[in-house]
Amino acid sequence: MGGQKKKRHIPTTSHRNKTSQNGTMTASIIEQTNSVSSKDVPNGRSIVKNALFFLIGAVLMALLMPQIQNLINALRNNRSDNSQISHQLEIPKTDKNFSDNEIAVLKKSNETTDENNKKISKELMDFNATFLTKITPKKIFVDGRRIPPVELLPQKPNNSSVKVFLFEEFLSEAECDGLMSAHNKHVHDASNVDPILCFDSVSTLRQHLKEAGKQQVKVTPRDFTPGTTCVNATFSRQLKAWFRQNWSYSTAFYPGENRFSAVFAHRVQQAMGLIESNGGKFQITAYPEGVGENYCCTKLIQDCVVDGHDQRDRVATVLVYLQDVQEGGKTEFPARNLGETKKGRALLWNNMNENGKCEPMSIHNASKVVTGHKYILQRWYYYKSFYSLGKRPPEPELPARESGQSRVSCDEYDHGSCRWYDEWNYDHLIEYQRQKLTLI
Ligand SMILES: *[C@@H]1O[C@H](CO)[C@@H](O)[C@H](O)[C@H]1NC(C)=O
Ligand SMILES: *[C@@H]1O[C@H](CO)[C@@H](O)[C@H](O)[C@H]1NC(C)=O
Ligand SMILES: *[C@@H]1O[C@H](CO)[C@@H](O)[C@H](O)[C@H]1NC(C)=O
Ligand SMILES: *[C@@H]1O[C@H](CO)[C@@H](O)[C@H](O)[C@H]1NC(C)=O
Ligand SMILES: *[C@@H]1O[C@H](CO)[C@@H](O)[C@H](O)[C@H]1NC(C)=O
Ligand SMILES: *[C@@H]1O[C@H](CO)[C@@H](O)[C@H](O)[C@H]1NC(C)=O
Ligand SMILES: *[C@@H]1O[C@H](CO)[C@@H](O)[C@H](O)[C@H]1NC(C)=O
Ligand SMILES: *[C@@H]1O[C@H](CO)[C@@H](O)[C@H](O)[C@H]1NC(C)=O
Ligand SMILES: *[C@@H]1O[C@H](CO)[C@@H](O)[C@H](O)[C@H]1NC(C)=O
């Protein structure tokens, strides 16, 4: 813990690297989306204002970084610590329900005189969650394009509250192209360094070895870097060579990191009624030919936790196709025909109902791309907003890695998929999993 305290005011190397990585992504998105109409951007009528907006965003991010680091440090506290909190620390009387994470931060702030911690706890206390209970689609006009919502009704009547809407040409060709080339450039730059591979279990690793014809390679949990579910860089390089690497590639950016984020957020709010305060990060994913998440019909994607009690969950999903796909690659909902994967087309659906309950019927799957390349932009909106939502979290310290080294995450073998990410979250940290924390 002493070590963590020391770090508080000094952004770590990985933060600095992260910033420069974002810089690259940001710059190219800005370059590529010049055609975005400035009237889409609230108060952003000139390039000067846009530049200013970006600068302020960058400065804000720089300021936020050490504070978010505190949050993470607090999160790393033991559950045993947290459980004492409930009797030791009197939670201020507000109408808020503090999560374990938040309580850990508050407790931390009380046991130290650290100014930064005091500040973060004040921000947390002052944070007012907003609720996003419904989606309200309506027709918008963008650069002369008329974009009405089209509801996709289920083929059979159903009592499910899930609604799916489609918006043609929600993004222009130029916007799609800009996003794809920013993504490609970012992935290309990151490929100078081989990724670190992480598995949700040692049995998943074994299955992948078997699939690669390397069942003679015996692995045990000791092959994972301590505290993580990742193998070291040397072993990762070896596995990369053995595996077929039919991975999807995801890059992420956060609100305020580029001009496009504001343009998109504004357009979504106008057309879909999803408020910015409840929006998370933006994620671009590319699926090469032959790759689809959860192809098999038994493992589907559910964007929220069924029977979960936390309302800080994904109430709605916005998904935009950035490219036509010749064959396959469809997003499929039960008993709804969504048609082709068409460039610029946006899909909007709710995962939770108006009371904040996850709808089992929001389950869907992304089918395998048969021919062509699939690129999508996704953003998830949350029913109840929370302090760290939409803020780029600092990178975890583990595993030790090179600057800009990416991550490949392989799930339960049935999913059949490994996914490449340009950012690290905390899923590979054993302690984080053990505490079932969900900060991001
Ligand atoms: C968590 O608590 C256990 C004992 O309860 C201790 O051994 C361990 O070092 C603690 N871990 C951290 C990260 O503080
Ligand atoms: C806080 O939690 C209680 C029960 O866990 C619930 O009844 C109440 O509605 C919650 N309040 C808020 C503001 O979320
Ligand atoms: C901090 O501790 C004091 C007493 O030690 C207590 O009165 C106060 O409520 C605590 N602050 C918070 C934020 O819990
Ligand atoms: C949150 O709401 C309270 C009560 O309405 C208000 O006093 C406070 O300023 C709000 N906090 C922020 C950050 O807006
Ligand atoms: C709604 O659809 C699901 C899946 O197609 C089905 O299991 C369920 O029985 C349907 N409910 C009603 C009331 O039709
Ligand atoms: C819809 O119908 C199914 C089967 O009749 C039932 O299990 C489910 O609880 C219903 N859902 C809602 C939201 O009413
Ligand atoms: C990396 O991991 C492999 C497999 O566990 C191990 O054999 C090797 O010694 C490790 N290399 C380094 C440099 O730690
Ligand atoms: C992709 O990898 C999975 C296992 O990781 C395998 O089952 C599947 O056949 C592979 N697909 C292609 C097109 O290579
Ligand atoms: C998921 O994809 C598979 C394969 O295309 C299909 O059989 C299944 O019906 C799909 N499920 C849903 C919910 O669309």
- Attached small molecules: 2-acetamido-2-deoxy-beta-D-glucopyranose
Q: What percent strand?
A: 15-25%
CATH class of the largest domain: Mainly Beta
CATH architecture of the largest domain, by name, is Sandwich
- End-to-end Cα distance, whole Å, is 22 Å
Question: At the third CATH level, what is the topology name of the largest domain?
Answer: Jelly Rolls
Q: Identify the overall geometry.
A: globular
Total count of strands: 16
Largest beta sheet: strand ordering: 3-4-11-8-14-7-6-16-15-5
Q: Helical amount among residues, as a percent range?
A: 25-40%
Low-confidence stretches: 1-94, 293-299
CATH superfamily of the largest domain: q2cbj1_9rhob like domain
Mean pLDDT: 73
How many helices? 11
Radius of gyration: 22 Å
| Integer count of domains | 2
Largest sheet: 10 strands, mixed
Order of helices and strands: HHHHHHEEEEHEHHEHEEEEEEEEEEH
Protein name: Prolyl 4-hydroxylase alpha subunit domain-containing protein
Region (Disordered): 1-25
InterPro entries: P4HA-like, Pro_4_hyd_alph, Pro_4_hyd_alph_FE2OG_OXY
Cofactor: L-ascorbate
Description:
With 440 residues, the chain is α+β, with helices and mostly antiparallel strands. It has 2 domains: 2-126, no CATH class; 140-188 and 246-434, Sandwich (Jelly Rolls), CATH 2.60.120.620. The protein contains 11 helices and 16 strands. Strands 3-4-11-8-14-7-6-16-15-5 form a 10-stranded mixed sheet. The chain has a two-stranded antiparallel sheet with strand order 1-2. Strand 1 (140-142) and strand 2 (145-147) form a beta hairpin. Helix 2 (13-32) packs antiparallel against helix 7, helix 3 crosses helix 5 and helix 4 (79-88) crosses helix 5. It is globular. The two termini are 22 Å apart. Mean pLDDT is 73; it is low at 1-94 and 293-299. The structure holds 2-acetamido-2-deoxy-beta-D-glucopyranose (9 copies). One 2-acetamido-2-deoxy-beta-D-glucopyranose is lined by residues 158-160, 334-335.
